[in-house]
Amino acid sequence: MWWFAKHKKVDIVAAGWLEGMTDIHCHLIPAVDDGSRSLDETRQLLETMRSVGIRRVVTTPHIYRRYPNNDSNTLQQELERLLPNLADLDIPLMLGAEHMLDEGFEAHLAKPLLTLGNSNYLLVETSFVGAPLDLYRLIQGVISAGAIPMLAHPERYLYMNDAEYSRLRAAGCAFQLNLFSLTGMYGEQVAQRARQLLERGLYSFVGTDTHRIERFRKTISSAKTYARYEEPIRALMSRNDSLFT
């Protein structure tokens, strides 16, 4: 019985794990990055997210050299143009950004910071190949600018080890889990890493990192993970809500 309880899997969508969720990481502003491609796709994404229980959304377009026009000012303008077209959906949509920690990152610290909604958390990421050599100086720069660095999907940085994760947390980084990492969306290595970090209590927040409607629909059609993670995931979702209360 003990083995069965530990290894029982559930469909997290069917089980209602996402009910009432505030999603703090997704890419819903049309045509500004590799996320939604159109207003129609954004509407479909929000409608589908609402259908699985998500009730509030922080959209986090990428800020890095691949998208040179993206900064706090231009993205705020894009959101303001978008919102009137979505008012009938009755799902609050706020703005943040996912900042690449690269050679251009510090220039954005000199501008109004695009933290997550009205919180003081700044969502950051690194390359999936390796971290910048000045990673900890950049993290300290975020803190010096008055924000708290939140590292997006650390489970996806397979170049990191336990010591690196511990050092990042000690340096002041919060960790954000991509929820569907647990269901194998990014492969078994990432799923295993996500489970390890969750079991160690290293995550503080959770998001979906939704980009495109086709993949989101496929993901939620069969999103299974171990039932024993329901309690810690619900705790992370409560932390999400605390950012906006």
Q: Name the beta content range.
A: 15-25%
Tell me the number of helical segments per DSSP (H or I, 4 or more residues long). Answer: 9
- The average pLDDT is 96
Give the C-level CATH assignment: Alpha Beta
Q: What is the topology, as strand order, of the major beta sheet? A: 4-6-7-8-9-10
Q: What pattern of helices and strands is seen along the backbone?
A: HEEHEEHEEHEHEHEHEHEH
CATH superfamily: Metal-dependent hydrolases
Task: Provide a compact summary of the structure.
This protein is of the alpha/beta class and 245 residues long. The protein has helices spanning 2-7, 39-51, 72-82, 105-109, 135-144, 162-170, 188-199, 213-221, 230-242, and strands at residues 9-11, 22-23, 56-59, 62-63, 93-95, 98-100, 121-125, 148-152, 174-178, 205-207, 224-226.
What would your notes on this structure say?
It is a single chain. With 245 residues, this protein is an alpha/beta fold. It has a single domain (2-242), classed as Metal-dependent hydrolases (TIM Barrel), CATH 3.20.20. The protein is 36% helix and 16% strand. A six-stranded parallel sheet has the order 4-6-7-8-9-10. A three-stranded parallel sheet has the order 2-3-5. It has a two-stranded antiparallel sheet with strand order 1-11. Helix 6 links the parallel strand 8 (148-152) and strand 9. It is globular and about 50 Å long.
